[in-house]
Specification:
Strand order of the largest sheet: 1-12-10-11
Distance between the termini: 11 Å
Shape: flat
Largest sheet: 4 strands, parallel
Order of helices and strands: EHEHEEHEHEHEHEHEHEHEEH
Structural class: alpha/beta
Strand content: 15-25%
Bound molecules: FE3-S4 cluster
Length: 290
C-alpha cells in the first residue's frame, strides 16, 4: 500500500486566498461584469472555475473596458496601470498582497535615498514589473536592475546597492547574498522580502522530499513558485510536476512505497484532493491485480 504524505505547508497562501475572496465577493454582489487584470492566480483550472461559477474573466489590457469591476491581482500593478483603470472609470478592487506592497515600498524608499536598486526576481513577472514601476514612478532617474542571482549583482560593480527580492524567490538566494555581504564586510543594504508563505512551503517541501520515494508537486505550469518547489524537491528525490490528477500514470508508482505531495501558493485544495484520490485509486487497482 502506498503511503501518502502532504507537506506541512503547501497550497494557497494568504495573499491568494484574499484575492479570490475579494474577487468572488464583488462578482457575487455587483450587477456589473468583474474582470481581473491578468489571470487572478497562476492556476488555469481555478481560473476556469472562477469564470464558470462567478463569470470572472481575466483581461490582458485595461484599455477598451469602460465599465465594471477590475480586480488587481495579488502581484500588484504599476502606478501607470492603476491610473489607467481609474481614468477608464472602472471600479477598482485592489487585491495586491500586503507583502508585495512592502517590497514596492522598500524599492521606492531605497531609490529616494539614492541607492542603486537591485530586484532579485524574474524580469517578466508582473510583480517585478510592479515593483520596478513604483520605484521608477517616484524617482525617475533611479538606477534599477532586475537580476537573478548574486553573480549578476557583482558583475555590475555596484557602488551603493540596495537589494530586495520578488516575494516568491528561493530563500537560499537571500541567504547566499547575505553571506557574501557579511563575509566581505560590505555596506550593501539588503531586505529579505521573500514572504513567509513562500519560505514555509519551500522548507516543508525540502523536508518532505528527503523522506519519500517520489514527490508530486501540484500546480500551474505557469506558476513560478510551483516550479521552484519542484526544483527544490528534485534536488532530493525523483519529482514530478502535475497540474491535474488526470496526468498521473500508474507506472509512476511502480516500486514506490511513500509519495510526498506539495503544491504551489496558487493551487486550490480541490486539485490537491483530486491528486490524492487518484493515487489511492491507482494503488487500489495495483492491489487488485497483484
Ligand atoms: Fe502574498 Fe506571499 Fe502569497 S507575497 S500572494 S502571501 S506568495
Amino acid at each position: 500500500m502506498i503511503e501518502i504524505q502532504i507537506a506541512r505547508h503547501s497550497g494557497f497562501c494568504f495573499g491568494v486566498r484574499e484575492a479570490i475572496n475579494k474577487a468572488t465577493e464583488v462578482a457575487a454582489s455587483s450587477p456589473m461584469p468583474t474582470r481581473t487584470y491578468g489571470p487572478l492566480i497562476h492556476n488555469p483550472q481555478e481560473i476556469d472555475r472562477l469564470k464558470k461559477d462567478y463569470g470572472i474573466e481575466p483581461i490582458r489590457e485595461i484599455d477598451g473596458y469602460r465599465e465594471g469591476n477590475l480586480v488587481i491581482r495579488a502581484h500588484g500593478v504599476t502606478p501607470e496601470d492603476y491610473r489607467r483603470a481609474q481614468t477608464n472609470d472602472l471600479n477598482i478592487v485592489d487585491a495586491t498582497c500586503r507583502f508585495v506592497k512592502d517590497v514596492q515600498d522598500y524599492a521606492v524608499e531605497f531609490c529616494r535615498r539614492g541607492y542603486e536598486l537591485f530586484v532579485v526576481g524574474d524580469e517578466m513577472h508582473a510583480e517585478v514589473r510592479g515593483i520596478v514601476g513604483h520605484a521608477r514612478h517616484e524617482v525617475e532617474d533611479c538606477r534599477i536592475y532586475v537580476v537573478s542571482d548574486l553573480e549578476q549583482i557583482v558583475e555590475k560593480k555596484p557602488v551603493r546597492p540596495a537589494i530586495v527580492f520578488q516575494t516568491t524567490q528561493e530563500f537560499t538566494k537571500f541567504k547566499k547574498i547575505e553571506h557574501y555581504i557579511k563575509s566581505n564586510g560590505l555596506k550593501w543594504k539588503i531586505r529579505n522580502t521573500i514572504c513567509g508563505a513562500t519560505r514555509s512551503n519551500q522548507y516543508a517541501a525540502d523536508e518532505l522530499a528527503r523522506t519519500v520515494d517520489l514527490m508530486l508537486v501540484v500546480g500551474g505550469r505557469n506558476s513560478g513558485n510551483t516550479i521552484r518547489l519542484a526544483e527544490i524537491c528534485s534536488r532530493n528525490v525523483h519529482t514530478l510536476h502535475v497540474e491535474t490528477a488526470d496526468e498521473l500514470m500508474p507506472e509512476w508508482f511502480n516500486g514506490i512505497r511513500k509519495v510526498g505531495i506539495t503544491a504551489g501558493a496558487s493551487t486550490p485544495q480541490w486539485l490537491i484532493d483530486d491528486v490524492i484520490e487518484r493515487i489511492e485509486e491507482i494503488d487500489k487497482d495495483k492491489g487488485i491485480r497483484s
